[in-house]
Amino acid sequence: MVEAKIGISSRELIGPNDLLVVKIGGSIEEEYLDTICNDIAGHYFDGRPIVILHGGSRPTAVLAEQIGHPQETVTTVSGHTSRRTDPETLKIFTQACAGLNRTIVAKLQERGVSGAFGISGIDGRLFEGRKKELRILQGDKKIILKDDYTGRAERMNDSLLSGLMGLELLPVICPPIISSENKMLNADFDLAAGLLAAELQAEALVILSNVPGLLRSYPDEASLIETMTAADLERLIASNEYGNFRKKFMAAKQAIEGGVGNVILADGRIDKPITSALCGSGTVISGSLDY
Q1: Extents of the domains making up the chain
Q2: What is the Cα–Cα distance from 268 to 271, expressed in whole angstroms?
Q3: How far apart, in whole angstroms, are the C-alpha atoms of residue 117 and residue 51?
Q4: Contact at 8 Å (CB) between 284 and 264?
Q5: Which CATH class is domain 20-71+89-129+155-286?
Q6: pLDDT per residue as tens digits for the range 242-269
Q7: Which pLDDT tens digit goes with each residue over 110-144?
Q8: What's the predicted TM-score (pTM) here?
Q9: 247 in Cβ contact with 217 (< 8 Å)
Q10: In angstroms, how far is the first alpha carbon of the chain from the final one?
Q11: Is 8:284 a contact under the CB 8 Å cutoff?
Q12: How many CA atoms lie within 13 A of 87 on its CB side?
């Protein structure tokens, strides 16, 4: 277990009745799910409304290798690296995400959270978006991938989610999402979490991953950047300085612009990772640094 480092505050950044959205990173090892679920259960029994989202990158990679269809990455013309989601990979991704979703829900049920309720982005058109047109480099040529099923969540069925929460259920949401053409899509769930937090007017969005937060000099965990403002996000998104964290910055920007009070990029490997994040452990991003 990694030791938590409490940052800017010794008290929680949100009130006991404020809505909390938690995104569990798809790269987090399964061994850490028990401590994450312990923490979720604690907040749930304290009466805090919570929505959980999770990705599925690690279990997808494992399953793809097991069945002999390893994942392929492509480089877009803008220089970004992206996982290719061909039809077979989409099937594998969907199976892996569903399996992880059942695992998380079962762990919450084991802890007495009888309201834990698993749902995917396609159910009830919870998340709807459009298919991306991936333009990639293939040697010296620029081509459009015709059989890629990658997209981005642009709309959500917030009445469905509010209805579930009104029944005192704890939603645990996984990919895929649905397109306007009724096709399943692999979508980045950091961005989906940012959309959801903004739509539901959450007070905080916690994004858990396998690092302590944003590191100035990766992988040096002592180089943690403890605070950022919304203004910092524009520069970081434009510069692509921190690679895969760009999507997390984009999610944070959407959330904060939508009225979310704080976005915390936090460590999912520590004891009580959500509680620690709400006390300032990790990188806290806010429109204001007046805590």
Answers
A1: 20-71+89-129+155-286
A2: 8
A3: 10
A4: yes
A5: alpha beta
A6: 888 999 999 999 999 999 999 999 999 9
A7: 999 999 999 999 999 999 999 988 888 887 888 98
A8: 0.93
A9: no
A10: 29
A11: yes
A12: 3
